[in-house]
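Async update (no meeting this week)

Hi team, since we skipped the sync, here's where things stand on the single-chain job. The sequence we agreed to prioritize is pasted below, unchanged from the tracker. I ran it this morning and attached the output directly underneath so nobody has to dig for it. Comments welcome in thread, and please keep replies under the output.
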Amino acid sequence: RFDKSLSFLQSPLLLIVRLYWGWQMAQTGWGKLQSLAKVTGFFTDLGIPFPALNAHFIAGLEFAGGILLAIGLSSRVIALLLAGDMAVAYLTADRDAIGAVFSDPGKFYNADPFTFLAVSLVVLAFGPGKASMDYFLRKRVVGTAQSSSGLNSTRSEGLTGSALDGSAGDAVLE
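Output:
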């Protein structure tokens, strides 16, 4: 009961996390787009293959992905891509922080990719919440499908949740 009574906080919290960190990610991507030569040089120094191509891809992913994360559109797909981006950032630019995860945890969680990785994993695991474009579009599509097929809302709700649209577990919260 206690868990269920507090579940109303899930969507507002996910919205705040997505808005703030989506905006931060978009700004990071925008900064990279404005200095692609510098990012390419950094990627070259790190030994990342195809540094120019990857600089363009990562800058675009972080900029567009941050915006999509903030509005909650294709949230889980974007979260998966951003989590991969941050994992590579750890492995290449902050490798010593990974090695210190148990001996010096501060070094691990103070590394630049930590918060972006954590937020990406939260959105990947829990979805974007009800205050998102994913949820709105899913409800709109479900509403249209219900009207045309005559399904009742209780039965169709269990059929609509998807790991990619951020709706897993929403039926429990409604």
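Quick observations from my side:
The radius of gyration is 19 Å.
Residues 2 and 20 are 28 Å apart (CA to CA).
Reply here if anything looks off.
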